[in-house]
Amino acid sequence: MIRNPILPGFNPDPSIVRVGADYYIATSTFEWFPGVQIHHSRDLVHWRLLSRPLNRPSQLNMLGAPDSCGVWAPCLTHADGLFYLIYTDVKRYGRTTVGGASGASLRDFHNYLVTCDRIDGEWSDPVHLNSSGFDPSLFHDDDGRKYLLNMLWDHRPGRNRFAGIVAQEYCPKVRALIGDRQLIFKGTPLGLTEAPHLYKRDGWYYLLTAEGGTGWNHAVTMARSRNIAGPYELHPETYILSSRTRPDAPLQRAGHADLVETADGDTYAVYLCGRPLPNRGRCILGRETAIQRMVWGDDGWLRTVDGQGLPSLTTPSPGLPSHPFPPAPARTDFEGPSLPVEFQWLRSPYPDELFSLTERSGWLRLFGCETIGSQYRQALVARRLQSFCASIATRMDFEPSHFQQAAGLVCYYGGTKFHYLHVSHEEGVGKHLRVMSALPDSTQADAFTAPIALPPGPVTLRAEIDYERLRFAYRLDGSEWVWLPQIFDASILSDEATSPGAPNFTGAFVGMACQDMAGTGHPADFDWFDYIERDYLLDPA
């Protein structure tokens, strides 16, 4: 059996492809650099993070991108001996998003194509395809022609923002779209039609879309046509996978799916989902990737194995030879010349401006940059939170000289949602430790704990996350842990904790940060970073 989610933590918008005996899933990374996560499996049960292909300034530059913008909904395919990766780079989100709303909701999103002959090789520089909407995908027809699909955005007043799915032919020789775009599917009354993927089977073109928005109403819609341009008839049940009518389902928000066929002809759907906190109904692990066995009926339509159309915590495996991967170590010692693959940073394609692994041997040095809410140059290196219960710690050497210098351990969702255990300096107190919290749905936008004076020298910082509860601790070298008395609300690190209309699609990260808002670049050095997942509540005291 396969247990879901197969890609825990922030891994939304999955796109899957099989090449021989290997399976690859690409997921969104939004404002985190490098762009796009590619995971690898040989049995659909065990997965490893393999690479992030958008890793050069010529491919991706997200400086200035708002929170939860950047790289959306990659589509990974393979044809003609090449891997094709399509993705959206979102530059502006806008606030008015519902269909029929008054006023303009202007968005900027650009769709690109990169290629490579190896999944883990150096991918090409991007080809700009269009900017008419997001969630692009590439369909390779059996006659050799290729088509780009994407949702169409309509900003005009009184119009449906999600105006349907458009298709246009792509010519690999000229590396551009050719001919006219065609509106091939307007969607269903559920609305918010996006995430198109096209397949061909028994002479039918099958169109898979996501509808209902990426929250609790999310659903996978299927339609088919004998002609790529339509008209498309809807599936007899319309929606082939959704938990929108079942608030008791452990996997919620199911949608944005893609299909893959094994060598033996079994069909699996990968899709995004969310696991709400039992006590708070918020998904602090963000939108994750699940997989489910599907079956084709005698009527030529796809359904879940039990016909219920519900996401499941377990699904039958295809029975391939087991292929586990070595687990990642709990401790990261910054001994190598590059960051371990688990870690990312925000927006900038110029990491040398933000951090160094060579300035101090065996340490990660973060150069003090802009504020922790900056959308430009922010020295924040972090990894995904992938469990409801986790222990995180890091040892830091940092000697600030004034209040505009700060560094520490952060539990981070975005510039308006975080808890930051940091060291700084203040007149009358000197070097000290405190927590700054950015609270998106509180009458007080930010909150600070009282400063705790610290002597010179390294300090080890610790966070314990147990579902919606977050506690912080610190210790000096050779001393015992000192726990801060406050219990912080970890549930703010979720899509559901938000100001109305703001984009919130990312997920929780834990990591290290450093600021010097005076512009002098005062650094902080980090000796190691621990990340340990737990499956039970633990009293940290």
UniProtKB/TrEMBL annotation:
Keywords: Glycosidase, Hydrolase
Protein name (record): Glycoside hydrolase 43 family protein
Top-level taxon: Bacteria
GO biological process, one term: carbohydrate metabolic process
Species, as recorded: Niveispirillum cyanobacteriorum
Annotated SUPFAM superfamilies: Arabinanase/levansucrase/invertase, Concanavalin A-like lectins/glucanases
The family this protein is said to belong to: Belongs to the glycosyl hydrolase 43 family.
Entry's Gene Ontology molecular function annotations: hydrolase activity, hydrolyzing O-glycosyl compounds
A Pfam match: GH43_C2
InterPro entries tied to this protein: ConA-like_dom_sf (IPR013320), GH43_C2 (IPR041542), Glyco_hydro_43 (IPR006710), Glyco_hydro_beta-prop_sf (IPR023296), Glycosyl_Hydrlase_43 (IPR051795)
